[in-house]
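Reopening this one. Same input as before:
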Amino acid sequence: MQVAGIMKPELRAKLVDFSGVRGAGPEAIQAVESALGIDLPADYVDLIGTINGGEGLVGNQYLMLWRIDDLLSFNKEYEVEQYAPGLLLFGSNGGGEAYAFDLRSDSQQVVNVPFIGMDLKHIIVVAQTFLSFIDGLSAQTRKSGARRFLGKEIIEIKPIILGGSPTDLSNKVALDRRQHIEAVRYWNRIVRELAK
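Same output, byte for byte:
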C-alpha cells in the first residue's frame, strides 16, 4: 500500500475528502506495538505511516481515525479493557460507534461497538482487514450528512440503550474528546449498574 510514505493512487482516491495529519514515524508505531505486545495489522500501519489520524468522508461515510500516539491513552480513558476486553479502538464514525481491531482473533478483524453500552456482545464485524474496512466505507452510499463539528463526537443526551431517541436532534450534542470520554465513562457505569 505505501512505498516510502507515498499512498497508492487507488487508496488516495478513497480518501479524497479525508483530512489527515502527517504520517507517523516507525518509532511511534513500534512504541505502541511494544506496549501492546502485538504487531498491528500491516495495512493499518501502512496507512498510519502516511496519514497519522484525521477525519472526513470515506465515500459517504464519516471516519475519525485516531493518531497512533493516542491509541493507548484513549483506550485506557474509554475503559475498553473493562467493558470490551480484547478490542483496540482506533477511531469512530463520529456519531456513537467506535471502530476497533478485535485482538482476540488472529486476523485482527475490524469491528464496531457502541461507545455507550460498550460490550463484546454488541460488536459487529465490519471487515476482515483494515484495507477492506476502508474499501467498505468507500462503497457505502448511505448519506451520513455533512459534518459541521470537526473534532467532536456526536452523542445522545439520553443514550439509545436507555430509551433515548436516535433521531430526535434535541437528544444530540457535540462533545470534544475529553467531554466525550467523560460522558461515555459515566453512561457505561450507569448501564453496567442497571444490568446487575
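So the earlier flakiness isn't reproducible anymore. For the record, The radius of gyration is 16 Å.
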